[in-house]
Amino acid sequence: MTTTHVTVLKKEAVEGLSLRPEAIIVDATLGAGGHARDILSQLNSDGMLIALDADESAIEALEGELKGDATVHLITANFRTLDSVLTKLDVPHVDGVLADLGWRMEQFAGGGKGFSFQHDEPLTMTFGNPTDEDSYPFTAKDIINEWSEESIANVLKGYGEERFAKRIARKIVEERESAPIETSGQLVEIISSAVPGFYRTGKTHPATRSFQALRIAVNDELASLEEFIQVAVQHLSPNGRLAIITFHSIEDRIVKHTFRTLAAEHGMTIITKKPVTASKEELAENPRARSAKLRIIQKN
User: Fold this and answer.
1) At 69, which CATH number?
2) Under which EC number(s) is this enzyme classified (predicted)?
3) Is 138 labeled as ligand-binding?
4) Fewer CB within 10 Å: N-end or C-end of the chain?
């Protein structure tokens, strides 16, 4: 598996923002900087790019590298805190906001936080610093080793839509009675042993949904997304646009329904009547793009 990140729907997302050269744009999920570079290339010296990422390593990797005519601010922050970020910068309104809810491959490949079922790492799964208890009151390890069987099953089912959530939760509780479950490798083995044989040999790794669910729970991703959308919309200038790329159905449902509500109750315009998906050419180059959906809304 490649460990080099390929930005998904880059052209479509940046074009969808309908940039002006002097625009103030927020890239709320900087990641590997693919979207940010394209945005910067279209801004002049009157423009501004504000780029956020909850993972400090993403900011550090691009510090001093993201350059253009426009002013650039790189900030370590979760996108749900966009309001305080813009307040500190004294930027009340922006012309566009982009959020790509996918992952940098570098976070999976040796990120050291147990995000991937293909690496044996400590089970934290926090976007930011796992010792920051204000941001992360619990880690994946806490869920697996301390939560009740029912609560674990609810996480796996609710956030991962895992069909064998109860069986996996039961096996986790059984195994932790012998010794704490410390690493992603241990958890993968437990999940694999809990599910039926046909599930272990399917196209999708049997741990995929469970790992997704734990990551969402640890980082409070769904509440963060809902909060982010509301804050982003509040700070949009007239004709400003919010573009969001999702990668699984739960996130996409939140974006779709929230956009519909904003259109119905606040007169905003949904630009993408149907979500934009990857072209055949992009899918051939990057199969990971198959689940990506881009939705865009405009403030009137």
Assistant:
1) 3.40.50.150
2) 2.1.1.199
3) no
4) N
